[in-house]
Amino acid sequence: MTPQRGGIFFIPRSNPPGNPHFVAGPHPVIASAPGICQNSPVTNKFYAPGQSRAARVNDLFAAIAPRYDLINDLQSFGLHRHWKRRLVRLAAPRTGERALDLCSGTGDLAFALARKGIAAVGLDFSEPMLAVARKRLQSSSSGSTRPVSFLRGDASRIPFADASFDIVTIGYGLRNLADWQMGLGEMNRVARPGGRLLALEFGKPDNPLWRKIYFAYLRLCVPLFGRLFCGDADTHGYILESLSHYTAQNGVATAMRELGLRNVRILNFLGGVMSINYGEKPRTGT
């Protein structure tokens, strides 16, 4: 699932229902870098480890979908739009290419990629979030110049064949998969040789003091948006809960290298509060 491409939250599922084009690819095992996840007890009712997360987050989506974009603007002071533009520039779309945006949510990244003149597909598990994206598409408020389509599906089992896309993005969703390593492996599978993989996500600052201040904001302030707009502080208290159990940017970079990606790098914003992980799939024979 956010920021699911345009969406912060994502619900994993074993198989997209009713999709005759589903192609299940291999899921490489990636070794986890030691000591990069914080072992902390679960305190948020919308977070559960493993496959049991799906039912919890499904309830969450029902509560946040109508005001998802508004709350994103408020809690990030509008900066999430700047970070998404940075991701699109880094992806460097070229004429004739195809892009897949995972955990697409309300479609911000899919629309932004299409505005660069390439065909884009937005994939997300949450039907309420996709309903907002499709409404934006119908209203033409996205400003996209090339076709954009939205599909319900699972980022851990992407319903496309190997080597289908030149650009594969995920915004605020990798952290919310039941198995983020499987999701990253799937991104690599559907990318063409030379394709670019990009993940925008909440980060963990290296500076201990700045991390403490940042986590205090997520713990004390962000849940207020959930209470105010959704009637439940846990809807946005979930962000810190899921982040505390997530490897963050350094662990994702390690996993990208273990997958064999080239030119792996991390772009940190605001001292690591937010980050983009970038990697390129090697061209055949290189």
Supply the key terms.
globular, 286 residues, alpha/beta, single chain, 10 helices, disordered N terminus, Rossmann fold, seven-stranded mixed beta sheet
Could you explain how this protein is built, in words?
This protein is of the alpha/beta class and 286 residues long. It has a single domain, classed as Vaccinia Virus protein VP39 (Rossmann fold, 3-Layer(aba) Sandwich). It is built from 10 helices and 7 strands. Strands 3-2-1-4-5-7-6 form a 7-stranded mixed beta sheet, with helices on both faces. Helix 3 crosses helix 4 and helix 8 packs antiparallel against helix 9. The longest helix is centred in the first third of the chain and has 13 residues, at 79-91. 50% of the residues are buried.
What is the element string, with H for helices and E for strands? HHHEHEHEEHEHHHHEE
Oligomer: single chain
Find the structural class using helix and strand composition. Answer: alpha/beta
What would CATH call the homologous superfamily? Vaccinia Virus protein VP39
Overall number of domains: 1
Number of E-type strands: 7
CATH-scheme architecture: 3-Layer(aba) Sandwich
Spatial shape: globular
CATH fold annotation = Rossmann fold
- Adjacency order of strands in the biggest sheet: 3-2-1-4-5-7-6
Biggest sheet statistics:
7 strands, mixed
What fraction of residues sit in β-strands?
A: 15-25%
Question: Cα distance, first to last residue?
Answer: 33 Å
Q: State the share of residues found in helices, binned by percent.
A: 25-40%
Question: What is the mean predicted local confidence, pLDDT?
Answer: 79
